[in-house]
Amino acid sequence: MKKFSGRHPASCKRCASGIFWSFTDFIAMHPDSHRPDPLLFTQEELDMLGRTADALSAYMGKPVLAEVVDADETGFEWVIFGVPLDVSEDSGNMVTVQIGGPGARIMGNKGGLQLEDGDVYECQYLWAIQLSDLEGVRFIKVDEEGEEVAWSDDLSNVLPFALTDTTPPTHDDDEEDEDDMGTDAPPTLH
Length: 190
What we know:
This protein has one domain (3-167). It is 18% helix and 25% strand. It is built from 3 helices and 8 strands, in the order E-H-H-E-E-E-E-E-E-E-H. Strands 1, 2, 3, 4, 5, 6, 7 and 8 form an 8-stranded antiparallel sheet that branches. Strand 7 and strand 8 form a beta hairpin.
């Protein structure tokens, strides 16, 4: 994996391609005294984001990292999903981001990687989800082009997998046989 040590450069904003620049610039134009309380993920939402990173790791057969970025700069938390690049992998044709660093909040099982505090990985950007205070929209999904591609008040609507804690009901074979017989057939004598 491509691993960096040290801090992110001040100009990085966690994204080498500048995807989130407009959010930061917009927030920076407003004085701090007018900022509402920051928007934060709930514990349930954080758990769902971690399970999504784990499911993606299993699905893709590669580690997928999901880092929650603090609301200090923007006034809202957001999470970025990325696949750590192999040392020999050419990143020229993809959007890359740096995930990790001192105090980074990585969700899920980290795709099996053993991350030390302060480790920074160059990753292929998959997408990000930012929190929003718009009416009826709590989550906005942002693609690798910086475009808002999905929004919803329900986190599961912007995730690639349906994550539920319940298992689907099982059917008893005897009940299925009775259902197959139907109720429209007239009774017969034997």
